[in-house]
Amino acid sequence: MQLPLDPDSRCSHCAMDKHCFHEAAVPEAFKAFISAHQTVDSGQDLFVRDQSDIQVAVVQSGAFKLTQTTPTGDRQIINVALPGDYVGLSRLFQHASPVAATAVSRSRICLLDHERLNDNPRQAIQLLRRELESSRWHQSLGMYEAPARMGQWFLKLADNNERRGLSRQRLTLPLNRTELANYLVMALETVSRTLKKLQTQGLIAVNGKTIDILDETGVRALAYPDPQLIS
């Protein structure tokens, strides 16, 4: 359900205020583009593949998985939008997108007026950079072994936590293990083995979907090994 803005819904009252639109030359101008708030239940689509109408939003809380259908008919997670990330920006430049966005937990978003964004294409491209960076990161996963992929994902979550004023050491995984295997392009058994290996090495502690980073320096060294060691 969409809710119109009210005085208590302004950006200054939001924990993500300093994080949203920071790529833009004039962040305050983009905050004026927010047209409504919406709560999206877990499993609900914000938009589906090839949908022609445009939905552009900033994630305020929760998370979304962005998926594409492979030639074999499987759904591949190609990006995960965390609080402060944008969803649907690339749809401004495509008549219909092959990507679907689905909430992985009960989420709250700020909807943007896409017509006003269309009138400011240069600024919209500035905001699109973060989405493109995440896509490039996902495309590069094949260069790394499973522990490095997992370590990089944990560091991405830690960075997002830090921007939100939360602990870098305690992470809440937005994806279940099946989704995580899909996203990191590894077998489900490999996810379990990798988590166990990182625990045995004293780098992390695992309690369900909660990950405690015990040695961030060690996780970083694992995540970004010497290029000569990458097979």
UniProtKB/TrEMBL annotation:
GO molecular function, one term: DNA binding
Keywords: DNA-binding, Transcription, Transcription regulation
Residue ranges constituting the Cyclic nucleotide-binding domain according to the UniProt record: 40-116
CDD domains: CAP_ED (cd00038), HTH_CRP (cd00092)
Domain HTH crp-type: 144-217
Annotated InterPro entries: cNMP-bd_dom, cNMP-bd_dom_sf, Env_Response_Regulators, HTH_CRP, RmlC-like_jellyroll, WH-like_DNA-bd_sf, WH_DNA-bd_sf
GO cellular component: cytosol
Protein name: Helix-turn-helix domain-containing protein
Organism, as annotated: Litorivicinus lipolyticus
